[in-house]
Amino acid sequence: MTSSAPTGTLDGALRLVDYWATVYRRTWRGSIVTSFVTPLLYVLAMGVLLGGFVEADAEVLEGATTYLAFVVPGMVAATTMTTVVGEVTYPVMAMVKWNKTYYSMTATPLAVPDIVLAHLGFVAFRVTVTAAVFLAVTAPFGVYESLPGVLAALVVQVLLGMAFAAPVYAFAAGLRDETAFALVFRLGMIPMFLFSGAFFPVANLDAPLEALARATPLWHGVDLTRMLVLGVPDWSMVLVHVGYLLALVALGWWWALRRLTRRLAQ
């Protein structure tokens, strides 16, 4: 008798590819505005129009020769964050509580790590597509100085996305209802979007607020993305950023397995 059980976590996750492909085929049109149009409007309004009134040298703008070149990498990283948070809050709640899809999945030979890896893999795919299109659309503005840096920045978006996805997924998986998502958006995502260096150097903040901004994952993603696409990498800081984001991914993965396992056992 041949067993149908997955031979490992990756094998189990790959068995859910058709499920997530079906989900994406049915929902991709609804993500166009939030993923591509809205960030592009921000770039046009704040980078092109408002940026025309901003005069500062490259030292103040962290290596960027114009405000547009400063704000575009920040918007790339900020879009990664907003895309990811949207994919691992209400969708996770739906699969645990409303549609109970996860319960159906665990009734098969699939295990919790297979399910989590498949879901995060889909999020990584969404981030890759969104960031690639954003980088391609903004390239004609002439703000990128290094093609290898742009390609590296695309990889960084996946890492940054997972650094947000894993912990937020874990948080969502253990919730009883969706009311706490308001805290995630209002006290987490929006303040980071505004104050983590996407629109102005965090050095402009008071010292305590600057230290707080530098502790956020978005600042690490923004700074890393900016120095790569502008072709001015500080390799010691690159290691710090990558190490910080990898630590978040590992911690979030461990927490996600723990929270979802407990939730599905109840």
UniProtKB/TrEMBL annotation:
<keyword id="KW-1133">Transmembrane helix</keyword>
<dbReference type="InterPro" id="IPR000412">
    <property type="entry name" value="ABC_2_transport"/>
</dbReference>
<feature type="transmembrane region" description="Helical">
    <location>
        <begin position="183"/>
        <end position="203"/>
    </location>
</feature>
<feature type="transmembrane region" description="Helical">
    <location>
        <begin position="149"/>
        <end position="171"/>
    </location>
</feature>
<keyword id="KW-0812">Transmembrane</keyword>
<feature type="transmembrane region" description="Helical">
    <location>
        <begin position="111"/>
        <end position="137"/>
    </location>
</feature>
<dbReference type="GO" id="GO:0043190">
    <property type="term" value="C:ATP-binding cassette (ABC) transporter complex"/>
</dbReference>
<feature type="domain" description="ABC transmembrane type-2">
    <location>
        <begin position="30"/>
        <end position="263"/>
    </location>
</feature>
<feature type="transmembrane region" description="Helical">
    <location>
        <begin position="66"/>
        <end position="90"/>
    </location>
</feature>
<keyword id="KW-0472">Membrane</keyword>
<protein>
    <recommendedName>
        <fullName>Transport permease protein</fullName>
    </recommendedName>
</protein>
<keyword id="KW-0813">Transport</keyword>
<keyword id="KW-0046">Antibiotic resistance</keyword>
<dbReference type="GO" id="GO:0140359">
    <property type="term" value="F:ABC-type transporter activity"/>
</dbReference>
<dbReference type="GO" id="GO:0046677">
    <property type="term" value="P:response to antibiotic"/>
</dbReference>
<dbReference type="InterPro" id="IPR051784">
    <property type="entry name" value="Nod_factor_ABC_transporter"/>
</dbReference>
<keyword id="KW-1003">Cell membrane</keyword>
<dbReference type="InterPro" id="IPR013525">
    <property type="entry name" value="ABC2_TM"/>
</dbReference>
<dbReference type="Pfam" id="PF01061">
    <property type="entry name" value="ABC2_membrane"/>
</dbReference>
<feature type="transmembrane region" description="Helical">
    <location>
        <begin position="235"/>
        <end position="257"/>
    </location>
</feature>
<feature type="transmembrane region" description="Helical">
    <location>
        <begin position="32"/>
        <end position="54"/>
    </location>
</feature>
<comment type="similarity">
    <text>Belongs to the ABC-2 integral membrane protein family.</text>
</comment>
<dbReference type="InterPro" id="IPR047817">
    <property type="entry name" value="ABC2_TM_bact-type"/>
</dbReference>
